[in-house]
What we know:
Low-confidence stretches: none
Helix content: 40-55%
Shape: elongated
Number of domains: 1
Structural class: mainly alpha
Radius of gyration: 18 Å
Strand order of the largest sheet: 1-2
Strand content: under 5%
Number of strands: 2
Distance between the termini: 32 Å
Mean pLDDT: 92
Bound molecules: zinc ion
Amino acid sequence: MPNTTPSHILSIIKMRCPNCRKGAMFTQKSIFPLKGLLMMPEHCSVCHQKMEIEPGFYYGTGYVSYALSVAMLAISFVSYHLIFGLSYKDNSFFYALGSSISIVLLLQPITMRLSRVLYLNMFVKFGKGSSLNS
Ligand SMILES: [Zn+2]
């Protein structure tokens, strides 16, 4: 096994445990079936880091996914403007709004997972474990 430190950004994108950056954070590799979308192992399979640090830990992810959704909405709206152009003379504003909202809704399963990964990364530092030791 190579003894290199996996990149932080890459470990977030690959949804790995923040403590070792190797163990998978979700039981299912794919988001389908959606029923098992947020199923997580109790402990990391590599370093035994607890995945749910305290009861109800992931309630705070609502704020993270809200921020991610607003950012995605803004990005897709600006992208629409740059690609197709917006005008107040036709309905293009509503098309842009509709397509942006659709994109955000379609990406919601990934946003939910990513917000959990980011949230756990805020509390668990690489190689140090949780900062919420009880
Ligand atoms: Zn781990």
